[in-house]
TrEMBL record:
Gene3D superfamilies: 3.30.160.250, Met repressor-like. One of its GO terms (biological process) is regulation of DNA-templated transcription. This is Putative RNase H-like HicB family nuclease. Transmembrane segments: none annotated. InterPro entries: Arc_rbn_hlx_hlx (IPR013321), HicB-like (IPR031807), Ribbon_hlx_hlx (IPR010985), TA_system_antitoxin (IPR051404), TTHA1013/TTHA0281-like (IPR035069). Residues 4-124 form the HicB-like antitoxin of toxin-antitoxin system domain. It comes from Rhizobium metallidurans. The lineage of its organism: Bacteria, Pseudomonadati, Pseudomonadota, Alphaproteobacteria, Hyphomicrobiales. It comes from the Bacteria. PANTHER family: ANTITOXIN HICB (PTHR34504), UPF0150 PROTEIN SSL0259 (PTHR34504:SF2).
Length: 134
């Protein structure tokens, strides 16, 4: 299992944002610190899954010293994000949803820094866990 540095950013009137210096463009957010940490793990897993699917090579994790030496990272708070081995491979499916529901899904997913697939997977996992606890 590899560990990568995630940087948490928080502006006064925003959610907690998380970026990954080793994966430019991979970002996520959460309304609480705990949610941001959870989303960071999911976002990293989905981003890496896409890189692997595209035949890309994963970078070696940068050290904390290297990440924090970059002046662009000085305002972030570093966290360690574990890249867990995928428990199963992604499978493409076809679903039919009302247009207004799909638009709302896309808006909420984008606001959270997630793809539509990542958002739907997270929502499904949430409901599965909620129903298992009942």
């Amino acid at each position: 299992m590899r560990n990568y540095i995630g940087l948490i950013h928080k502006d006064a009137e925003s959610d907690y944002g998380v970026s990954f210096p080793d994966f430019p463009g991979a970002i996520t957010a959460g309304s609480t610190l705990d949610e941001a940490r959870e989303m960071a793990e999911e976002a990293l897993a989905f981003h890496v899954e896409g890189l692997i699917k595209d035949g890309e090579t994963l970078p070696q994790p940068s050290s904390l010293e290297v990440v924090m030496a970059n002046p662009e990272n000085k305002d972030g708070v570093a966290i360690l994000v574990s890249l867990k081995a995928a428990s199963s491979r992604a499978v493409r499916i076809n679903v039919t949803l009302p247009e207004d529901v799909l638009a709302r899904i896309d808006a909420v997913a984008a606001a959270a820094g997630l793809s539509r697939s990542a958002f739907l997977a997270k929502a499904a996992k949430h409901e599965i866990e909620r129903n298992a606890a009942a």
